[in-house]
Amino acid sequence: MSGQQETPAGAAGRTEALRRLHGSRAHSAHERAVAACRYAGVGRDAAEIVPKDPVGRAANALRLSAESLAALAVSAPDPAADARCARNAAATAALAAQVAAARDDTAASAACLRAALAASQAAAAAAGGGAQGQDAALNARAEEAERDAVATAKAAGWLDDTDPAAP
């Protein structure tokens, strides 16, 4: 066997490590979305099957993100699918941040929105194209952007130390 071939055990371990990485980022982004919705006064009851406004879209995206995380917990590890789950949760957090920032026109809210959008873009890059959740550099950028988004949300008071996403 050449030094570049991975053993089945090595591949399984790498897949599990990627599951933990993407899963952690997905949960963190989801908690940011929950916190932003809470900050904006958007309740789960605002979710609509066919949302008609940004509040309904944010609440519905939050519901879908929660369902995706529940499916992630019971599915077999799949780096591409796991990265897409993290991407979708980050997009949900960005949508929730847009709603919150629109209701609170402050510099802190604008910073949260920028950080949420950056985290969403980094998660999309990690999940997309040929990367399919397996590119170490793109995953590292997505991790860093998520940490920045959490720190920014904490600094703005959207997320506190009792929220699971808070380090």
Structural account:
By secondary structure, the protein is mostly helical. Helices cover 72% and strands 0% of the residues. It is built from 5 helices and no strands. Helix 1 (8-40) packs antiparallel against helix 2 (54-74) and helix 4 packs antiparallel against helix 5. The longest helix is centred in the first third of the chain and has 33 residues, at 8-40. It is globular, with a radius of gyration of 16 Å.
* Quaternary state of the chains: single chain
Summed up, the helix count is 5
Please give the alpha-carbon distance between the first and last residues. Answer: 42 Å
Round the mean pLDDT to the nearest integer and report it: 90
Overall spatial form:
globular
Strand segment count: 0
| Major sheet size, sense and barrel closure | none
What is the alpha-carbon Rg in Å?
A: 16 Å
What fraction of residues sit in β-strands? under 5%
Short structural summary:
The protein is an all-alpha fold and 167 residues long. Helices cover 72% and strands 0% of the residues. The mean pLDDT is 90.
Observed structural traits:
167 residues; mainly alpha; 5 helices; 72% helix; 0% strand
Reconstruct the topology from this structure.
Layout: H1 8-40, H2 54-74, H3 79-103, H4 107-127, H5 136-156
